Predict the 3D structure of the following.
Amino acid sequence: MLFGPGNKHVPKLVQSFVEVLGRGTTLVEEPLGRRMAALLHSMRPSLPGDFMEAHFNTLSEQQKAAFTAYMAGQPLPQ
């Protein structure tokens, strides 16, 4: 199972999604990135309050813009 027993892989999965989405379309095509963002949205209520933000804060400004666009369903910055 993707999340692992007792959801032990969720933190690494979230960290990986944040990093991948922060790279815009470098690592994934936009439709897959949109699905990843939807999954993060669905997981967010079950994550500790600042968990996703802590990973977000490790991104560069350009990566933050790409991640934010994915999460908001907006066109990706060029």
Notes: The helical segments are 10-21, 30-43, 51-56, 61-72.
